[in-house]
Design the sequence.
């Protein structure tokens, strides 16, 4: 596997000008299937990008010499990523995974220029002939975490560190809050937006700000363990791993984790492409399909609380529980979902409001 | 928000400001000698990863800080050799140093991701550290007191010592300093080494004081803020202190306001931009009053080539 930082990728870009000829030769010889990954963070972020890195490694294990992976790290969400995407396509990559929300517009644009390259955009919503989207129902995991928090919080004040207010993150906040308030209706969730996926020092300071104002459980939707470490240092009830098991950073405060497992989807896509059966669609499995995994529970959590969380998890798996079941009232007091109804996927992707109890 | 929060806010803002202050103090001395080193961010990352590695291996925070300073200083010597001995472009070389530091720290840090260390906490007795009021003075890492001491030390060195006078002379008029017998290049080497060491210590604040982990790009652009602050402070150490704390204050207030659950009238993106905006506004005000950039050392960024 080749790992590229953005800058080395740009240098390769110059060579890429001459590549159409080379890549057609490669195709004639039936060389390995070239696969590119464009990532927003470094693979060592201990979270999001690390999860895709693990998925890429699983691909190598599954397909060995049949594929050749280029993994580009730390690509900013902006015009720069368009260049990286184009260069990967020019270099003969036949499948390109763009693993961050902000790559969406650029992926669609570049995909038009390379109709024979297949693009897969993680957490996105725009598709075309050769652009598919994929995601995992992280909010199902958030509902399990919310159940834990509802039982464990003593101050009824939960801090939530968010990256950007995009549907993906908003869904998580709402699923978490609904589950927590189902257990304890007194709970409020205070959201701090950081406008960044990776700024550990600021994540830590946000956690300090929340704990100083009474939060005893901290949830983060940024890509690292900084907030958990502050929770550990301050000795509050705890927090949750995001994307990966982060218990090494906070053995006493790591209550559980939502673990991203991308391998099943990546393997499926590559199989489909090899068989020529790939079509653009939206893949959005959750806990039941094994793409969202609940991490181990901290031993300090009482057995009945663990059982309650497991019950929610199992209910989601067998379909008896939908985290977004009405009645749902938003934080301005308007009823959004009547009793007994659920929010469909289109409604989830358009979510730009917060449920009752969220202060964002 | 209430008054009980004042002390926690001050403690958080001081922590957030300290790495910026340390790096900016180092760069201030470098620029006073007439050299512009844009490699601050890279040197900070080298300091951060070395501090993490040494703390992880030995558990000794003091040793970690010393090693971070030495490692960043060594990287600044590459810059010094290229720009001072070989007269390469300072801007290009400084940027290259940042790219090098980012890459080096990522490579060297691979073995250390996913591992925690113990934070370098206050060393005062618990009664003082946890006192409801006085902890505002005592509940800080030794790095914080060091940074405050260095503000005074840099001011004293530049304004009250003969060596400081020589350094400023070299930065204001290198040919005159040269003609009366001072070695411009040697003075600048020393200044760049000091700047490197300070950037390394600033970097060590990230794993030791703010967030006890190693992750790539841990400094997330603070080195560039430090560079801007030097200009903003008009190359004066005490103004630098004010500027760094103002920046930290705006950043911290933003987090505390949002954490208090107040909905806010303005979007979060505005709050995230505010520290930078505040810095730019103050910079503009200062420049207006001074009618031009007269505070900058006259030889800033110019290579010294006495033979020509």
Sequence:
């Amino acid at each position: 596997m080749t790992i590229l930082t953005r800058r080395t990728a740009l240098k390769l870009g110059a060579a890429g000008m001459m590549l159409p000829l080379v890549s057609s030769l490669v195709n004639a010889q039936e060389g390995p299937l070239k696969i590119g990954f464009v990532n927003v963070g470094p693979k060592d972020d201990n979270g999001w990008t690390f999860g895709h890195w693990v998925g890429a490694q699983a691909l190598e294990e599954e397909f060995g010499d049949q594929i050749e992976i280029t993994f580009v790290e730390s690509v900013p969400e902006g015009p720069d990523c368009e260049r990286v995407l184009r260069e990967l396509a020019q270099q003969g990559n036949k499948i390109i995974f763009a693993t961050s929300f902000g790559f969406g517009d650029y992926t669609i644009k570049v995909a038009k220029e390379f109709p024979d390259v297949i693009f897969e955009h993680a957490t996105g919503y725009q598709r075309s002939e050769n652009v598919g989207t994929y995601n995992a129902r992280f909010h199902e995991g958030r509902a399990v975490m919310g159940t834990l928090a509802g039982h464990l919080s003593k101050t009824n004040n939960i801090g939530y560190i968010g990256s950007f207010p995009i549907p993906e993150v908003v869904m998580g906040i709402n699923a978490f809050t609904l589950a927590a308030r189902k257990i304890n209706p007194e709970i409020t969730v205070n959201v701090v937006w950081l406008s960044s996926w990776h700024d550990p020092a600021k994540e830590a300071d946000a956690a300090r700000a929340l704990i100083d104002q009474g939060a005893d459980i901290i949830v983060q939707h940024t890509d690292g363990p900084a907030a958990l470490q502050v929770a550990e240092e301050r000795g509050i009830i705890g927090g949750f791993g995001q994307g990966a098991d982060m218990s090494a950073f906070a053995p006493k405060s790591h209550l559980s984790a939502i673990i991203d497992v991308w391998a099943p989807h990546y393997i499926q896509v590559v199989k489909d492409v090899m068989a020529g059966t790939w079509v653009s669609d939206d893949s959005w499995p959750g806990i039941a399909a094994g793409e969202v995994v609940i991490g181990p529970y901290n031993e300090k959590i009482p057995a009945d609380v663990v059982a309650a969380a497991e019950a929610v998890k199992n209910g989601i798996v067998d379909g008896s529980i939908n985290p977004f079941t009405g009645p749902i009232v938003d934080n301005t007091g308007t009823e959004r979902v009547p009793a007994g109804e659920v929010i469909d996927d289109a409604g989830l992707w358009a979510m730009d409001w917060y449920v009752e109890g969220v202060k964002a | 928000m209430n008054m009980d929060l004042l002390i926690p806010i001050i403690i958080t803002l001081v922590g957030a400001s300290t790495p910026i202050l340390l790096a900016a103090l180092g760069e201030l001395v470098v620029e006073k000698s007439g050299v512009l080193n844009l490699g601050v961010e890279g040197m900070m990352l080298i300091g951060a990863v070395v501090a993490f590695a040494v703390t992880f291996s030995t558990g000794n925070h003091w040793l970690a800080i010393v090693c971070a300073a030495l490692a960043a200083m060594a990287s600044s010597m590459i810059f010094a050799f290229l720009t001072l001995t070989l007269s390469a472009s300072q801007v290009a070389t400084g940027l290259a140093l940042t790219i090098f530091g980012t890459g080096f720290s990522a490579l060297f840090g691979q073995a250390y991701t996913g591992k925690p260390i113990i934070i370098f906490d206050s060393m005062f007795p618990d009664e003082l550290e946890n006192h409801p009021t006085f902890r505002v003075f005592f509940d800080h890492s030794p790095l914080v007191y060091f940074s405050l001491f260095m503000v005074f030390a840099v001011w004293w060195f530049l304004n009250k010592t003969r060596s400081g006078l020589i350094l400023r002379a070299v930065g204001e008029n290198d040919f005159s300093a040269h003609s009366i017998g001072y070695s411009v290049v040697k003075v600048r080497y020393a200044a760049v080494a000091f700047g490197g060491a300070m950037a390394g210590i600033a970097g060590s604040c990230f794993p030791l004081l703010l967030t006890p982990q190693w992750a790539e790009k841990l400094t997330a652009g603070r080195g560039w803020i430090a560079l801007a602050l030097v200009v903003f402070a008009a190359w004066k150490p005490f103004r630098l202190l004010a500027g760094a704390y103002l920046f930290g204050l705006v950043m911290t207030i933003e987090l505390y306001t949002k954490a208090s659950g107040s909905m806010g009238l303005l979007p979060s993106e505005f709050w995230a931009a505010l520290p930078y905006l505040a810095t730019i506004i103050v910079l503009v005000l200062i420049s207006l009053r001074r009618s031009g950039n007269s505070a900058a050392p006259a030889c800033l960024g110019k290579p010294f080539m006495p033979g020509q």
Observations:
- Residues 49 and 109 of chain B are 6 Å apart (CA to CA).
- The first helix of chain B runs from residue 6 to 32.
- The domain at 3-290 of chain B is CATH 1.10.3470 (ABC transporter involved in vitamin B12 uptake, BtuC).
